[in-house]
Design a protein that fits this description.
Layout (H helix, E strand, L loop, with lengths): L10 E4 L1 H14 L4 H16 L10 H10 L9 E6 L2 E10 H19 L1 E10 L5 H9 L3 E6 L20 E5 L7 E5 L6 H10 L8 E2 L5 E2 L2 H5 L3 E2 L5 H16 L21 E9 L2 H4 L3 H14 L8 H13 L1 E4 H11 L1
Parallel strand pairs: 3-4
Antiparallel strand pairs: 1-12, 2-3, 4-11, 5-6, 5-11, 6-7, 8-9, 8-10
Helix pairs in contact: 1-2, 1-12
Bound molecules: NADPH dihydro-nicotinamide-adenine-dinucleotide phosphate and pyrrole-2-carboxylate.
Length: about 350
């Protein structure tokens, strides 16, 4: 513990509401509109509450340096266009993707319920967060949702020599009769870039097979990956194909940038990828009547029956329950830093 923190408890619990409010003040004080601050604060506090550590308050310095650099427009007002019976398009105006989703969400749900399926294509947007918060709320409304977003060049396609793809996550959510929605959210790289940064900060080595150094040699050193090295896709050619699909859906289809297309070098401090995002929402009642949630529950029951101990999402839901009961546990030094930023 540093001199500065001497006497403070190492970990301090903070309520979800208090953390959200603090983050909202931070975003507003650093150049966003009230609406953007509200949406980003809720997203970031939710990630911290659920133990999504690589995309919770760890990301605040990156958000703020991107805003300060002028790379991202914190006051952007998304332009929502109703383009077809099952298609909504949003130009995020070089702002964040989450306020663009929030602006289009009502129309997207209305279309999914009437057409059975609806697509939301967000372009000209920055996504710097976990992807599960974008899909889980649809499952809470008995809808199935799938989302992809591309990020920044740091992943070598399988069989290639240099990085091209982003870490390109895929998130999925489906309602379930007997419990929390089934949700998974995974980077198509062997490890998320945020987790490499965290490992570097902690001085920890990575497992084998995550990345290469600047000479293309396999390395477990996160610093070597960050300093001119690159990540590998998960699962060799299979993860690589999924990452390619994400580039096509999140960038080519939406009208956003590929992960390799933007140049932030004239904006020192910029960290938020300027890309696109696709969300597909399906109303399962159109095919399965009211039975879909029972069918997904049956699948979970059978998975448990063959010995599955952990469903994707289980760890997060457990962290969420603990945070809501006991407060979100933040290092006291981190909380002090956030309070200072919030003024
Ligand atoms: P993880 O590898 O930690 O987890 C991926 C998924 O697998 C989660 O749904 C997780 O559930 C589940 N899971 C993990 N371990 C097990 C297990 N043993 N058994 C069953 N399920 C398991 O995530 P990633 O490192 O791939 O991604 C981390 C975050 O980074 C994601 O939220 C992603 O959206 C974000 N990201 C964001 C990007 C962006 O551009 N905005 C780019 C890349 C990543 P659980 O959640 O319960 O642990
Ligand atoms: O963790 O890979 C990552 C990431 C990229 C953009 C936001 N998060």
């Amino acid at each position: 513990m540093s001199q500065l923190n001497a006497g403070l408890p190492e970990v301090e619990p903070v309520s979800f509401a208090d953390l959200s409010q603090m983050l909202q003040r931070i975003f507003e004080r650093h150049g966003t509109s009230a609406e953007v601050a509200r949406v980003l604060a809720h997203n970031c506090a939710s990630a911290q509450r659920d133990g999504s550590h690589s995309h919770g308050v760890f990301r605040i310095p990156g958000y703020l340096s991107s805003l300060a650099s002028g790379w991202v427009e914190g006051r952007a007002v998304p332009l929502v266009e109703d383009v077809a019976s099952g298609f909504v398009r949003v130009d995020a105006g070089n702002g964040f993707a989450q306020p663009a989703l929030a602006a289009a969400r009502g129309l997207l749900i209305e279309k999914a319920r009437s057409a059975g399926i609806a697509v939301l294509a967000i372009r000209n947007s920055h996504h710097f967060a976990a992807l599960w918060p974008d899909v889980e709320p649809f499952a809470d409304e008995d809808l199935v949702a799938l989302s992809v977003v591309n990020s920044m060049t740091c992943v070598v396609p399988h069989g290639a020599q240099r990085p091209l793809f982003g870490t390109n996550p895929i998130a999925f959510a489906a309602p379930r009769a007997g419990g929390d929605p089934i949700v998974f959210d995974l980077a198509t790289s062997a490890i998320a870039h945020g987790d490499v940064q965290i490992a570097a900060r902690k001085g920890q080595l990575l497992p084998d097979g995550m990345g290469v150094d600047s000479l293309g040699q396999p390395t477990r050193d996160p610093q070597a990956i960050l300093a001119g090295g690159a990540l590998l896709p998960f699962g060799g050619h299979k993860g690589s194909a999924l990452s390619m699909m994400v580039e096509l859906l999140a960038a080519a289809l939406t009208g956003g940038n590929f992960s390799f297309e933007f140049d932030w070098s004239k904006h020192p401090g910029a960290q938020t990828p300027w890309t696109g995002q696709l969300i597909i929402v399906i109303d399962p009642s159109k095919a399965a009547g009211a039975n879909f949630a029972n069918r997904s529950e049956e699948l979970v029951r059978q998975m448990r029956a063959v010995g599955l101990q952990r469903m994707p999402g289980d760890r997060r839901y457990q962290e969420r329950a603990k945070s809501l009961a006991e407060g979100i546990a933040l290092p006291a030094s981190e909380l002090a830093r956030l309070r200072e930023l919030a003024g």
